[in-house]
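Sequence only, no structure available. Ideas?
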Amino acid sequence: MELFLNRISDGLSNGATYALIAMALVMIFKATTLINFAQGEFAMFGGFIALVLATEQGIPMWGAVFGSMVITAVCAAGIERTLIRPFDPSDHLPLVIITLGLFLGINALAGIIWRFDPRAFPKLFPSGNALTYGTATLSWYTVGTLVTIAVVSGGLTLLLNKTKIGLAFRAVSSNLESSELVGIKVGPTLQFGWAIAAAVGTLGVCVFVASPFRQLEPNVMVTGLIFAVSAAALGGLDSLGGAIVGGLAIGLVQSIAVPYLGIPSELSLLAAVVVLMLVLLFKPSGLFGTPQVERV
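Reply:
I predicted one. Tokens follow.
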């Protein structure tokens, strides 16, 4: 039982970080029905910026994280304006190619600047355990990740429901053509979505690599993005709440189901892909996504 509780704790901490990245993917998909394959690399680059701000500029760790979130948000807004907006949003092929190109380019740029040697990331949460039951423990890191995702989800909900730009974003997400007809500036609104997604993704990576068992390097999100995409698809690609549920579910599957079924840890990524395939096969809209309605 104590081992089982430890695995639940690990699954919740992993799942919370997957959920943060999944929420960033959902923000883009809600507005454009496009999966941004460069989302993980945006976030990874932001993680390196936070590391530089903290270790080389002497900025307090959380200040460095917020600073990197602002920087990546500005960069993502610039990329949307220069590389994404000129293309027809209804034609996804050029946009997918662009995001794949950004994925490769950002990864290579990070490798050139910081090399591919893993680097320890400073702690964001206190060391030690918040709760102990026999040999089972609940670390402050797990508590911190869960609190972080609660704060981010609450903040995004307020932003989208209570602000003018948030309401515009929801309108564009619901019907792009009608939004244009009522005078909403679609381009800047989508730019806002890209910026917010980059900021949330950067926070997710910073929390992810702040674990005592992980380090920051340019390929840190290559597999993490697959877990995040699986989480977003499981919860529903247009549901922020679904991204949280999907992320936690994928984390628990990775930490509990894979070991108890005797699946080697090296195949945990395959388990996430299997979950993704099953969701797409039996419930394409996800658990909380909006089913597409075709009118004839």
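The longest strand covers residues 129-133.
Hope that gets you unstuck.
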